[in-house]
């Protein structure tokens, strides 16, 4: 497993919450949705960064009122054929205006990285070996020109084609 952000491997500052545990002050912690729902009132005064991990079968609705308290939402891909988390990422960005980190977690395939980024993901915790090998070899999965807007950092291209966009950075 490796963590990639901005197209490069980086150290992951986030720690998953141990089962039955509580977040430790100063340690960025990702809680499963169930743990977040059980502990959210007790965590109202928590002085650290918190994130929530949401599985494909779990709804976003329970965390929407708390998005301003969350620094990260991790959306799970337990198998490559389950695309429900693509929709959740888009909903987080478009409908709910979430500006924090949206992370793809699990069986993330090379071919999915571009679409994930366009849906609003900005970091990736990857377990898929071929994807890891490609990224570690320095292959770049992201295109720079698009024919429709997305949620990544991009600008309109100076052209009569009003739909044309170019990635920034």
Order of helix and strand elements from N to C terminus: EEEEHEEHEHEHEEE
The overall number of domains is: 1
Radius of gyration: 17 Å
**Percent range of helical residues:** 10-25%
CATH superfamily: Aldolase class I
CATH topology: the name is TIM Barrel
Description:
This protein is α/β, with parallel strands linked by helices. It has a single domain (2-141), classed as TIM Barrel, CATH 3.20.20.70. The chain contains 4 helices and 11 strands, in the order E-E-E-E-H-E-E-H-E-H-E-H-E-E-E. The protein has helices spanning 33-39, 84-94, 110-119, 129-136, and strands spanning 2-5, 8-9, 15-16, 29-32, 50-54, 72-77, 101-106, 123-126, 145-146, 154-156, 165-167. The strands form 2 sheets. An 8-stranded mixed beta sheet has the order 2-1-8-7-6-5-4-3. The protein has a 3-stranded antiparallel beta sheet with strand order 9-11-10, with no helix packed on it. Strand 6 (72-77), helix 2 (84-94) and strand 7 (101-106) form a beta-alpha-beta unit. The longest helix has 11 residues, at 84-94. The radius of gyration is 17 Å and the shape is globular. The relative contact order is 0.14.
